[in-house]
């Protein structure tokens, strides 16, 4: 069995505190010289239960491995992956990263030592920040000691709800490898052009700012970002191909592919409509049949990718990139939503 520390995240060691207005994450100032007794006293003074030390499993797959939260010291933790091989470790790790990025907007901090740091064994729950690097398998030519000491204790914050729901999605996706590929294509598209935004930001800022842009300003943005837009669009479209289970599909095949998807996952893509949030600025069309918007974007993909688009007959702007990212995320969310509603993953 191989063990990996997932680098780039700082997960909470304890569940959020639930109250009448929702929930709140709890955090304490960290000092490397604090003893466990000092840390425990802070919990007691705040009236919060001390988290259980060691491994709490959020996802277990009998053939691939498990994803867990490993709490050490008192309120320090990292995400750990246990798997039978490096390949399976990255299967779990990449799926989790793409899920958390695409559905929650939490991309891990890009770390110089890599994403998964292999451990020599299950770490000791009495670890401290200072000796966290001890169980990490190091190669002198691969890691800088200073980076290795800093990176595992820095990163993007995750709470238990996000980790729990993310693992539930990964658990279902493991049964459909092409959906993991779709998530990874969407994640890569977002790494080129970040399309994640919460509704309040869209309504209060983005939508209004976008409407104020002149055609000349939009052309300037396009000229500065053309190749990033093209690459981000094509990557997201490849994710759509993964969802449909058919690379290089043709327009006439779209209705059959959507019907097959509905039969497989209990969705309703062949009959329902997609609401446009970004394409609406270019086409002024707010509602699309899924078959129509897929056909429309197939034409764009062929122009941009298959034919090189040297003198663009079809210009891919920010509108089309953000919309296809949203379309793909929307389709994946519909596929996974049944899992999230009926098969909650309970930490063990």
Secondary structure elements and pairings:
Elements: E1 2-6, E2 8-11, E3 17-19, E4 22-24, H1 36-46, E5 54-61, E6 65-72, E7 76-83, H2 86-104, E8 116-119, H3 145-150, E9 155-158, H4 160-173, H5 177-192, H6 199-212, H7 215-244, H8 254-265, E10 273-275, H9 280-283, E11 287-289, H10 290-306, H11 318-342
Parallel strand pairs: 2-9
Antiparallel strand pairs: 1-7, 1-8, 3-4, 5-6, 6-7, 10-11
Give a short synopsis of this structure.
This protein is an alpha+beta fold and 348 residues long. 48% of the residues lie in helices and 15% in strands.
What report would you give on this structure?
With 348 residues, the protein is α+β, with helices and mostly antiparallel strands. It folds into two domains: 2-175, no CATH class; 187-342, no CATH class. Helix content is 48%, strand content 15%. The chain contains eleven helices and eleven strands. The two termini are 19 Å apart.
């Amino acid at each position: 069995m191989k063990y990996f520390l997932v680098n780039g995240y700082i997960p909470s060691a304890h569940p959020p505190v639930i109250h009448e207005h929702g929930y709140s994450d709890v955090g304490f100032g960290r000092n490397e010289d604090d003893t466990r007794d000092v840390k425990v006293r802070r919990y007691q003074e705040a009236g919060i239960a001390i988290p259980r030390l060691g491994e709490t499993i959020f996802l277990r797959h009998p053939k691939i491995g498990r994803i867990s939260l490993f709490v050490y010291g008192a309120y320090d933790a990292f995400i750990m992956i246990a798997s039978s091989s490096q390949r399976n470790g990255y299967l779990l790790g990449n799926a989790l990263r793409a899920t958390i990025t695409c559905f929650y907007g939490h991309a891990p901090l890009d770390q110089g030592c890599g994403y998964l740091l292999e451990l020599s064994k299950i770490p000791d729950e009495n670890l401290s920040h200072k000796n966290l690097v001890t169980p990490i398998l190091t190669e002198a030519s691969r890691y800088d000691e200073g980076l290795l000491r800093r990176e595992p204790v820095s990163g993007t914050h995750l709470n238990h709800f996000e980790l729990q729901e993310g693992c539930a999605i990964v658990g279902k996706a493991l049964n459909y490898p092409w959906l993991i590929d779709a998530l990874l294509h969407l994640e890569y598209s977002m790494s080129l052009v970040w399309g994640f935004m919460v509704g309040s930001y869209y309504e209060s800022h983005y939508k209004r700012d976008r409407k104020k842009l002149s055609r000349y300003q939009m052309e300037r943005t396009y000229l500065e970002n053309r190749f990033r837009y093209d690459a981000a669009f094509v990557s997201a479209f490849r994710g759509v191909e993964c969802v449909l289970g058919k690379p290089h599909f043709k327009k006439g095949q779209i209705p059959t592919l959507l019907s097959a998807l509905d039969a497989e996952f209990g969705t309703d893509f062949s009959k329902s409509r997609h609401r446009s949030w970004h394409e609406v600025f270019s086409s002024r069309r707010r509602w699309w049949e899924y078959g129509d918007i897929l056909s429309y974007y197939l034409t764009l993909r062929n122009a941009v990718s298959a034919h090189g688009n040297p003198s663009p007959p079809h210009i891919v702007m920010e509108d089309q990139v953000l919309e296809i990212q949203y379309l793909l995320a929307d389709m994946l969310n519909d596929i996974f939503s049944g899992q999230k509603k009926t098969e909650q993953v309970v930490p063990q």
